[in-house]
Amino acid sequence: MNVVVYAQEFKNLYSTYTDQSIELDGKDDEEFWDKPLAAKEFWQNFPSDSLASQKTEVKVVHNDTYIYALIKAFNSSNKYGIPSLERDSSVPGNDAVILLFDTYKDGNNAFWFESNPVGLKKDALISEGGDDIDMTWDIKWEVETYIGDGFYQCEFKIPLKSLKFPDGSKDWRFQVFRADIFTGEFSLWNKVPINQNAFDLAFFGNLIFDIPLGKSKTQLTVIPYISGIHTNDFNSNINYNNIAFGGDAKVTIGNGMNLDLTFNPDFSQVEVDDQIINITRFEINLPEKRQFFIQNSDLFSSFGDSRDSRTFFSRRIGVGRDENGNTIENKISAGLRLSGKISKNTRLGVLNMYTNEDTKNNIKANTNSVIAFQQKLFSRSNLSLLFINRQNTAKNELDYNRVIGVDYNLLSKDGVWDGKFYFHNSFSRLNKTNPFSTGFTLSYNTRNNSIYSKVIRLGEGFESDLGFIRRKGIFKNYFRYERRFWFKNKKIRSINVISSLAYIDKPENESLITDRNYRLGLQFDFNSMAGIDISLRKDYTHLEDSFNPLRSFAVNPLLANSNYNYSYLEFGYKNDQRKKVSYRFEFNNGDFYNGKRMSLRTQFNYRFEPVFQSSFNLSINKISLPEFYGDGRLLLATSKFNLTFNKSLFWTNYLQYSNVSKNFGINSRLQWRFAPLSDLYIVFNDNYLYENSLIPSLRSISFKLSYWLDL
User: How far apart are CA 163 and CA 213, in angstroms?
Assistant: First the structure.
């Protein structure tokens, strides 16, 4: 194996202090833009690692209140991709420039500010060294743009009071990213190797202030809301109405901490979850979409293993189960979150949420608390401590679940190595055996080779009521190796050979082997951003319990204490997702337990820029088991279409149908952003049971009005 050591070069860009009044117009004809030197010579990260073919220039100035940046992006075609006008839109195909600020220079966390030729705003928080990007984070900032002949310019105005940084900062770590759609080129100011994540904080340059920054000012924001809903439950023949009010408050504490408070939170405007047909033996975890839980979420949610043992999973708060086992809302009455930097190298997070009692569904009131502490070690690594407490607040009841844990997160200075070691222990009134979760991961990533290894051990007695635990009592080994072959031609970017092996047994059950999974794959990446994936898989499964992969189509479940060896082929293709018409599909064919399975998943997207975006998704699993068990065709069809009338008015529609749940659902959401970060939502939900015809099940219409007020 050839070991590559990156000779990292960190560029410097100087920010000039100005006391002139600045009016944003996207142009550079003001005198103060003549003073600072421009950052130039961007390097491609895609498709190759050469100098960018399209020039980009960046200048930065500052005063006591704002950071100003001017980005001039040259474009020889005078053509631009503008797929949507909605803030924080994730629709691909967008010409964009992005400013990235690592204000504490810790190589782990950064602020993201993005715009495009028409001034679309997108802001985000980066964490875990660049692996996690939170697009739900929003602050007030300004940008104006100007389109000239052969270029466009973005002029940014970012308030210092909204950023966290040390007192008297003399410099920040800094990066600029540009996407040029018509050349198919992604480039960065400070070079990032093509095998690395383009937003890896290991490869940031430096932004140096000619006059050090002062102290960030304290900011207080209040966000009151009022909401109302009318619901028609056709199953119980009940109509009901409800009016609610509440709000959030945000307080900055010093230069590094944020205090967020919420009273009677309402999440009716949150996009509905995707329906999923689950043919595995395990629970599926869906992403968190509630904004209160997302900001600085890496402080709380990165503990343990994200796949097998996520010790804290925020979706457990405010969600319960009725007496039939169905997932329902468990009302949150109030909560707080204190998070951020208490010093240059130390982060602290405190989360406390109170959930109400639901006597009808036998759900007790609980206090849900999480405390996280993170200390930076060496160049980018950190040591993190965790405490979780779920406490029943009913009198004379001793019902609780507590977890303590420690994680060491490794991130090397050059971005080649990263990994984790953790040990967590749970406590409850039932003294269970082996109440622990432990494991380690280690990955090595160079231009031509990538190695990833994981070992975890979950005791049978480990419980985390506020976590996501796929299964307990296991010992798991996973190893993955990828060899990359790079090409310098007009079509193929790289061919990757991938091999992986997973092995799981049960130490508390005489080391019973429950799973072996082997994969051999080929991956073709094209300069057009199209891709092909081919994999051959061979699995072994021991079922400890009976299992029904056919769901409602089953005659009988697969028997407990049975063994299965099965092999299957996977094939996937996607075209260039930046195109106005794009598609992808995945095909699976082969053995499935003691039968056969053929599956197809497709996605088709169409855009009429920048007003209309649509997608259609179809998932079909045709499963044929021996006659005793049955066969069936499991179908899920979804369609989403958005209308972005302008930068303030958006209409999103989502249709879903599954022949497993026999549910057809409609979710329609109109959003009017009538003032900065202030919204009126009108949401219509309509659900039907499909039994040869559509039978109304549950229908509702709701509104939510919120206003962002800086005091």
Answer: 12
